[in-house]
């Protein structure tokens, strides 16, 4: 304690010297400096787009003023207003042409300039004003998208530690992070971001590495273990020996990778530009030929009038912007038309695992008990003690207990050791939670270190303890679960298994991606291969790349991008480089970080993974409609140009015809606003209400499902037969009281409500058949229990055959219910908006 007091005193001195004032949870992030920086950035962004906004405002005012003058029969002022608007529009369009020519490119701006000049030349001032407005709108939208993309690095840079606490001759000194040298001894306080790479010098480090690996569960590093910068100290203070300068650290490397990936992304040629390369020389050639053959300038002017590229300037952007609008309505914010065009070409989709395909936080999946304690009692004792622990796993345990409506009590005499566990007194019982050794389990075999139960049978109990502990460890290793052991009154009493559950809408998303035309899916994760394989198998993902660092994720994206356009989907800071490298990066904003959202090209703003597949389908449909609109408008314009070139179409009628062509092309482009074949029928208020209600019932029944399995196991366990039979009867009561009414309610109300959206009763027929099986199993269980009688002395006639049949029924019922719940949540509950998250995927 004296050492800690000395450190605290020295820390206060260091803070006074450094001018920090209060201790910050993130070192080096002075709130005042950060706010000033943010205000400077916010001030620069509108200033950069001020000219574009002003241009749009002026052209809109000019167009509207001319319309007002025309309505009051003031032809002269209306023409003057529209002509001035067209002249204003020529300025940015001509500037765009010059910039493109400087870079040796020829784009749609050339046609825009010719269209504006031609409109003014033949007196089509209204058409010129409309073209000017569209040019201004396009420039502002492009400027907005560019400004959003340029903020990608700011979140990463702002989070980088700027200071560190260095130990020198027993004193603490606050220094700039850039001053950290190899070999320096640093004190890392709770909640701080590790400023540079190093090794644990003293103490146990409990680190949240989610920004680096994406994994939500803190990891432990003991003396000598390597620690990477960017991790957050989720435990007590520890000493770190620096092995790299801060500028060469892992986190600094992530920032550099995002910047490099942005720089390496090749510029995308817009759809209209590609058609302009063909349409421009054709239009000029036809106009010149008409003038040359006839010797009349009017024919060339007429050709230019009908060649006004409104199908290019208006129709294509209308379809693309309509696609952007449609995607945003479905919860996917796409940062610009060029991104939507790239998304339309997607062939390969790569996913991060944690927080993208899974929930991103640990969830209790199973309670294993020993020494006669019930599942509920073991969880209640553990959660009562965990109420006072800041550990992320403790929060998951407490949440699980409250979800089961267990009555928690406040513990006393609590002691917590970082990296080991916590112990205290709960309702008169000594309770310990944590690692195996912390609760009295010693060695791989799980031999209890504590004395045998005082009732005798010590050797048998030790053997039994070895059996269940070994089974728990095998199950944890097989499923990739986290094991938390629980001891009560000095003996191992059970274990809690926690997992990061699959998102219920993830399987639907994979299926819809394939339907949308994506032919390959890849999971790229920093997690272990065994865990990644389990997730990939459940979802049907084509390839797995596990145990990958952020740099290796970038390499994986580049490898896939060599053959096909790629989409990367992620949610963490560690995904930002890969998101920036992919053809299109999609960030999960509902649970992700600001850095990943800013580095991405698109953001999923709702908690619905299947909207990613829908966004790809929307992008493809919008591009197809844009192509149709452009080809329709160009085809009709080419026909009109040929007619005008031979003198059959004077300029004035030609202008009217061109307006008709433009209108046809634009109306066709607006079809992109309408739902396409990819769209699911919107959920009604009643559908959302009912699916939400039934999902809540699923969550409430989760502990009862676990009780079914526990009751089955008790029939062959060491507990007395009377106790095991009592648990089975409790299970039957639950089935009759809660489960069967729930099933009947689904059959009577939910399924008929969903049938129109799913295409008819055939879509719900498999689930109805499962309901029949559930009723049959419950009925058989009730009949078997009624055949088992208990005599007056309390002994039962549960012979081995009865026990075996009961066990088979219970295990069968448990398996059917878990599968049925998962199928409903995946197939039906995800139709509602928002998605009701049930327990079956945990």
Write the layout of secondary structure elements.
Blueprint: H1 2-18, H2 31-48, H3 50-71, H4 75-102, H5 108-121, H6 125-150, H7 152-159, E1 163-168, E2 171-176, E3 185-188, E4 198-202, E5 205-208, H8 210-213, E6 219-221, E7 226-227, E8 232-233, E9 238-242, H9 250-264, H10 271-294, H11 297-306, H12 310-329, E10 332-334, H13 337-344, E11 348-351, E12 363-369, H14 375-386, H15 392-403, E13 412-417, E14 421-426, E15 429-434, E16 441-442, E17 447-448, H16 458-479, E18 482-488, E19 491-499, H17 506-515, E20 520-524, H18 529-539, E21 543-545, H19 550-561, E22 566-570, H20 576-581, E23 584-588, H21 594-599, E24 602-604, H22 610-645, H23 651-669, H24 685-714, H25 721-758, H26 765-787, H27 800-827
Parallel strand pairs: 11-20, 11-22, 20-21, 22-23, 23-24
Antiparallel strand pairs: 1-2, 1-3, 3-9, 4-7, 4-9, 5-6, 5-8, 10-24, 12-19, 13-14, 14-15, 15-18, 16-17, 18-19
Helix pairs in contact: 3-4, 3-6, 4-5, 4-6, 5-6, 5-10, 6-12, 7-9, 10-11, 10-12, 10-22, 11-22, 11-23, 12-22, 12-23, 13-22, 14-15, 17-22, 22-23, 24-25, 24-27, 25-26, 26-27
Span between termini: 42 Å
- Name the overall outline: globular
The percent range for helix content is 55-70%
Uncertain regions spanning at least 5 consecutive residues: 1-45, 148-153, 264-269, 443-463, 790-795, 833-842
How many β-strands, per DSSP? 24
Explained architecture:
- The structure is a single chain.
- The relative contact order is 0.09.
- The longest helix has 38 residues, at 721-758.
- The protein has 27 helices and 24 strands.
- The chain is 57% helix and 13% strand.
- The model is unreliable at 1-45, 148-153, 264-269, 443-463, 790-795 and 833-842 (pLDDT under 50).
- With 842 residues, it is of the alpha+beta class.
- Strand 23, helix 21 (594-599) and strand 24 form a beta-alpha-beta unit.
- It has a seven-stranded mixed sheet with strand order 10-24-23-22-11-20-21, sandwiched between helices. A six-stranded antiparallel sheet has the order 2-1-3-9-4-7, with helices on one face.
- Helix 7 (152-159) runs antiparallel to helix 9 (250-264), helix 11 packs parallel to helix 23 and helix 17 runs parallel beside helix 22.
């Amino acid at each position: 304690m004296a050492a800690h007091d000395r450190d605290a005193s020295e820390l206060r001195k260091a803070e006074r010297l450094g001018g920090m004032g209060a201790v910050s949870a993130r070192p080096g992030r002075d709130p005042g400096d950060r706010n000033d920086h943010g205000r400077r950035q916010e001030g620069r962004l509108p200033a950069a787009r001020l000219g574009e906004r002003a241009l749009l405002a002026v052209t809109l005012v000019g167009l509207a003023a001319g319309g007002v003058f025309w309505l009051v029969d003031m032809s002269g002022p209306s023409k003057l207003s529209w002509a001035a608007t067209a002249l204003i529009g020529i300025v940015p369009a001509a500037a765009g042409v010059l910039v493109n020519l400087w870079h040796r490119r020829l784009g749609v701006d050339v046609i825009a300039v010719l269209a504006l000049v031609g409109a003014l030349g033949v007196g089509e001032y209204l058409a010129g004003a409309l073209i000017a407005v569209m040019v201004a709108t396009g420039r502002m939208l492009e400027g907005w998208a560019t400004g959003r993309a340029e903020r990608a690095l700011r979140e990463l840079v702002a989070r980088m530690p700027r200071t560190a606490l260095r130990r020198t001759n027993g004193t603490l000194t606050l220094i700039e992070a850039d001053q950290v040298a190899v070999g320096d001894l640093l004190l890392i306080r709770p909640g701080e971001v590790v400023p540079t790479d190093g090794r644990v010098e003293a103490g146990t480090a409990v680190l949240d590495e989610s920004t680096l690996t994406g994994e939500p569960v803190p990891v432990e590093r003991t003396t000598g273990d390597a620690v990477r910068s960017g991790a957050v100290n989720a435990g007590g203070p520890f000493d770190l020996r620096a092995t790299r300068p801060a500028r060469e650290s892992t986190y600094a490397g992530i920032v550099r990778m995002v910047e490099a990936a942005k720089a390496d992304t090749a510029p995308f040629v817009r759809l209209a530009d590609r058609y302009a390369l063909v349409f421009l020389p054709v239009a000029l050639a036809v106009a010149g030929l008409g003038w040359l053959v006839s010797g009349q300038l009017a024919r060339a002017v007429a050709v230019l009038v009908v060649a006004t590229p409104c199908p290019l300037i208006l129709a294509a952007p209308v379809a693309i912007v309509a696609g952007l609008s449609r995607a945003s309505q479905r919860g996917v914010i796409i940062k610009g038309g060029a991104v939507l065009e790239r998304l339309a070409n997607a062939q390969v989709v790569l996913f991060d695992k944690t927080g993208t395909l899974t929930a991103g936080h640990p969830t209790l999946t199973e309670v294993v008990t020993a020494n006669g304690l019930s599942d509920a009692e073991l969880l209640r004792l553990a959660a009562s003690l965990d109420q006072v622990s800041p550990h992320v796993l403790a929060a998951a345990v407490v949440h699980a207990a409250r979800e089961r409506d267990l009555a928690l009590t406040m513990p006393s005499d609590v002691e917590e050791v970082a990296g080991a566990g916590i112990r205290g007194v709960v309702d008169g019982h000594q309770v310990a939670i944590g690692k195996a050794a912390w609760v009295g389990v010693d060695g791989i075999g799980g031999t209890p270190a504590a004395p045998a139960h005082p009732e005798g049978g010590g050797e048998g109990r030790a053997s039994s303890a070895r059996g269940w502990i070994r089974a728990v460890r095998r199950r944890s290793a097989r499923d990739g679960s986290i094991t938390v052991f629980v001891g009560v009154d000095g003996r191992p009493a059970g274990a809690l298994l926690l997992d990061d559950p699959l998102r219920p809408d993830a399987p639907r998303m994979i299926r819809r991606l394939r339907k949308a035309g994506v032919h390959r899916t890849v999971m790229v994760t920093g997690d272990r291969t065994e865990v990644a394989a389990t997730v990939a198998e459940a979802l049907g993902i084509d390839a797995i790349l596990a145990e990958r660092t952020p740099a290796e994720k970038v390499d994986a994206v580049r490898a896939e991008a060599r053959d096909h356009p790629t989409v990367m989907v992620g949610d963490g800071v560690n995904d930002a480089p890969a998101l920036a490298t992919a053809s299109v990066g999609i960030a999960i904003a509902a649970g992700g970080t600001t850095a990943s959202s800013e580095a991405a090209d698109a953001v999923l703003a709702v908690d619905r993974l299947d909207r990613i597949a829908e966004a790809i389908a929307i992008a493809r449909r919008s591009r197809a409609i844009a192509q149709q609109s452009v080809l329709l408008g160009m085809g009709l314009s080419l026909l009109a140009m040929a007619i005008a070139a031979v003198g059959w179409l004077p300029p004035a009628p030609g202008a009217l015809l061109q307006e008709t062509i433009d209108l046809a092309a634009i109306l066709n482009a607006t079809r992109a606003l309408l739902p396409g074949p990819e769209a699911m029928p919107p959920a009604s208020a009643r559908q959302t209400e009912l699916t939400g209600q039934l999902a809540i019932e699923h969550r409430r029944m989760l502990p009862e499902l676990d009780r079914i399995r526990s009751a089955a196991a008790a029939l062959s366990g060491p507990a007395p037969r009377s106790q095991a039979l009592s648990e089975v009867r409790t299970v039957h009561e639950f089935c009759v009281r809660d489960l069967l009414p729930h099933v009947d309610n689904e059959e009577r109300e939910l399924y008929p409500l969903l049938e129109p959206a799913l295409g008819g009763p055939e879509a719900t027929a498999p689930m109805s058949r499962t309901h029949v099986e559930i009723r049959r199993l419950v009925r058989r269980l009730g009949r078997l229990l009624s055949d088992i009688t208990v005599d007056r002395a309390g002994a039962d006639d549960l012979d081995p055959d009865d026990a075996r049949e009961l066990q088979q029924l219970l295990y069968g019922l448990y398996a059917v219910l878990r599968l049925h719940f998962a199928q409903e949540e995946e197939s039906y509950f995800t139709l509602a908006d928002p998605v009701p998250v049930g327990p079956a995927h945990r």
